[in-house]
Amino acid sequence: MILSRGTVEEIAAALAANGLILRGGFSFGDDETAPAGFSGGPARSVLLIGQAGAVPWPHFQRWRERQARDIANPLDSWSREVIGAVAQEFGARAVSPSDRPYLPFQQWAMRAERLKPSPLGILMHPTYGLWHAYRGALLFEDELPFPEAHEAIHLCDTCVDKPCLKSCPVDAYSGQGFAHEACLGHVRGHSGEPCRSGGCLDRNACPYGTDYRYPPEVQAFHMAAFAKL
């Protein structure tokens, strides 16, 4: 797939140097309001960038050792730096899930990879399970010829027991949605130590994609960021 400044394969190779991967993409329709591209005109295509498992973690850790210890949102800052450099090299605009106003990253991901949300809200991947993430996207003013995305098997439909809804001590996830305050209070409290050190019990109870499960130190990092510990 050829761009005006390189190929998608070259972009994938540049991202792989930091443990990141392409997560699919699509071209915006003529009737859609697309975000701005590199030069300010409407983007024609988007490539999603993310991770499978914890492959980027060593790259992030080496970067973090060179930064001030009190840097805010270090993983977000690292992702912006890495993806921004790739965007500059290939003539794209880099965007992040934390940009304001928020861009519809989850809708983009569902469209690009044909995934559906799990009961925890995280998109269920047929290979990675719940152990993946989207770190950013590249917006191009070229219209890229993406192959048609095929419907992915939704593993949650095959899961009868739903252990992801039975492992949390405060029932943070239910048919009524996510009980944010109950979860936060538990994680910050004395009884929340297993969650702080090893990650969300509901997420870890999911039987799919376990080969890609984040190591405990990675889960502890994300939990500390959630709880602002």
Characterise this structure.
By secondary structure, the protein is α+β, with helices and mostly antiparallel strands. Helices cover 33% and strands 17% of the residues. It has two domains: 2-151, no CATH class; 159-227, no CATH class. It contains eight helices and ten strands. A four-stranded antiparallel β-sheet has the order 3-4-8-5, with helices on both faces. A two-stranded antiparallel ribbon has the order 1-2. It is globular and about 55 Å long. It starts with a strand and ends with a helix. This is 4Fe-4S ferredoxin-type domain-containing protein.
**First CA to last CA: what distance?**
44 Å
Sheet having the most strands: 4 strands, antiparallel
Spatial strand order of the main sheet: 3-4-8-5
Helix content: 25-40%
Task: Write down the overall mean pLDDT.
Answer: 94
What is the count of DSSP helices, taking H or I runs of 4+ residues?
8
Organism: Mesorhizobium plurifarium
Protein name: 4Fe-4S ferredoxin-type domain-containing protein
Properties at a glance:
8 helices, two-stranded antiparallel sheet, globular, 4Fe-4S ferredoxin-type domain-containing protein, 229 residues, 10 strands, alpha+beta, 2 domains, four-stranded antiparallel sheet, 17% strand
